[in-house]
Specification:
This protein has one helix at residues 2-40. The model has no long low-confidence stretch (mean pLDDT 81). With 69 residues, the chain is mainly α. The chain is 57% helix and 0% strand. It contains one helix and no strands. The relative contact order is 0.05.
Length: 69
């Protein structure tokens, strides 16, 4: 029984140490796949007709500046 608990402890510690690395690897692969799809332009546009559009602001230039002397 002691040998089984020793193996179980070592396996649990290994899983505890290796889990963050595995999660990071999976995340990196997902990001790489998204970048590759974007590079190939296979990603569908997510903008819809109801999405907010930027408001265009025109600036006026004043010859003497904004301060009145």
């Amino acid at each position: 029984m002691n040998l089984f608990l020793d193996y179980l402890t070592v396996t649990a510690l290994f899983a505890f140490v290796a889990l963050p690395a595995a999660v990071g690897l999976i995340r990196e692969r997902r990001i790489d796949r998204q970048l590759r799809d974007a590079e190939r332009r296979e990603v569908e546009p997510t903008e819809t007709r109801s999405a907010a559009r930027p408001y265009k602001v025109t600036r006026h230039s004043y010859p003497k500046g904004w301060a009145k002397a």
